[in-house]
């Protein structure tokens, strides 16, 4: 069990002496906001680190407990030291404290945060202990761990986004394909899935049956490296596409001019016009008539 550590006063700690024990991946937008805020207003809240025994003759070392975004922003801004609160905690305690802090934010944007629940379970914590530390329900914790162990990444994403209750996701994972519709019907009857959420669940089930449980990563395929050769090839392909469009446009224009000229010639033939009147076809669509009038040499 993790002990409550006593806090020390704030000190300046070298940024290069800090090890991030539970690294997180943040969006570029969030990182830019943190960096801009620190650059403009300074650091409002110090980070939290745990002191480590330095190597013989070495400099003091620290494990990060809280404040990865602030630490990375300081490094980006070229700062060599950062204000930090130093606590007494083991490496194990630092990891657990970091996991709990990330989970407590409850702003899950990736499966990484849900995996933290399983990491706590792997560290020997019970479902009840994890629920207490993370302020999540025990049922939610059990469901997430079950889905993670079954590699049900599509269902996990649906749980994370709030489209499917974790209990329904677990039932879908346990059910055979022929029984999944029964699970959805029961969820509807229990008012767990209604309206847009029910439609989203049905689409998810169809995709899951067709393409499997899904990838464990939210990242899209890695983009091709922008080498000089790739840039030239992309430019040449774009130019060729525009040439094809231009040829098609010119061909269409020539055909339109031919049709206009042919129709203008026919309309100048009195016998042809008389025949049209006899058949009740003496009127023209407005757009065609305007085009004939606008055409050079058109009859008035």
Could you describe the 3D structure shown?
With 300 residues, this protein is an alpha/beta fold. It has 3 domains: 1-90, Conserved hypothetical protein from pyrococcus furiosus pfu- 392566-001, ParB domain; 106-221, no CATH class; 228-294. Helices cover 57% and strands 10% of the residues. A 5-stranded mixed sheet has the order 1-5-3-4-2, sandwiched between helices. Strand 3 and strand 4 (61-66) form a beta hairpin. It is elongated, with a radius of gyration of 34 Å. The N and C termini lie far apart (97 Å).
DSSP helical segment count: 13
Mean pLDDT: 77
Q: Please identify the structural class as seen in this structure.
A: alpha/beta
Major pleated sheet: 5 strands, mixed
C-alpha end-to-end distance: 97 Å
Low-confidence stretches: 1-7, 218-225
Q: What string gives the helices and strands in order?
A: EEHEEHEHHHHHHHHHHH
**Taking strands numbered 1, 2, ... along the chain, how are they ordered across the largest sheet?**
1-5-3-4-2
Describe the structure concisely for a colleague:
The protein is built from 13 helices and five strands.
Features:
300 residues; Conserved hypothetical protein from pyrococcus furiosus pfu- 392566-001, ParB domain; 5-stranded mixed beta sheet; 5 strands; elongated; disordered N terminus
Furnish the topology, listing elements before pairings.
Layout: E1 7-14, E2 18-20, H1 28-41, E3 47-52, E4 61-66, H2 68-76, E5 81-87, H3 91-104, H4 111-122, H5 127-134, H6 138-149, H7 153-161, H8 166-174, H9 180-189, H10 195-211, H11 228-267, H12 270-278, H13 286-294
Helix pairs in contact: 1-2, 3-4, 4-6, 5-6, 6-8, 7-8, 9-10
């Amino acid at each position: 069990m993790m002990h409550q550590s006593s806090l020390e006063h704030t000190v300046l700690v070298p940024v290069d002496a800090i090890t991030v024990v539970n690294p997180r991946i943040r969006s570029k937008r969030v990182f830019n906001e943190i960096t801009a805020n620190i650059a403009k207003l300074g650091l409002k809240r110090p980070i939290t680190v745990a002191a480590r025994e330095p190597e013989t003759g070495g400099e003091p070392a620290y494990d990060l407990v809280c404040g990865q975004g602030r630490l990375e922003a300081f490094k980006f801004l070229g700062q060599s030291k950062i204000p930090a609160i130093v606590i007494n905690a083991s490496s194990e305690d630092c990891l657990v404290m970091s996991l709990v802090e990330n989970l407590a934010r409850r702003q899950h944007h990736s499966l990484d945060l849900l995996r933290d629940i399983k990491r706590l379970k792997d560290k020997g914590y019970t479902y009840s202990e994890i629920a207490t530390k993370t302020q999540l329900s025990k049922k939610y914790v059990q469901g997430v761990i079950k889905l993670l162990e079954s590699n049900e990444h599509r269902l996990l994403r649906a749980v994370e986004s709030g489209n499917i209750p974790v209990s329904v996701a677990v039932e879908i994972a346990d059910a055979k394909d022929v029984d999944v519709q029964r699970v959805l019907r029961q969820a509807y009857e229990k008012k767990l899935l209604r309206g847009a959420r029910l439609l989203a669940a049905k689409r998810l089930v169809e995709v899951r049956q067709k393409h499997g449980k899904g990838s464990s990563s939210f990242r899209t395929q890695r983009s091709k490296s922008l080498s000089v050769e790739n840039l030239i090839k992309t430019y040449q392909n774009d130019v060729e596409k525009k040439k094809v469009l231009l040829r098609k446009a010119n061909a269409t224009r020539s055909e339109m001019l031919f049709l206009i000229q042919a129709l203008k010639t026919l309309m100048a033939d009195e016998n042809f016009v008389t025949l049209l009147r006899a058949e009740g076809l003496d009127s023209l669509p407005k757009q065609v008539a305007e085009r004939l009038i606008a055409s050079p040499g058109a009859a008035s």
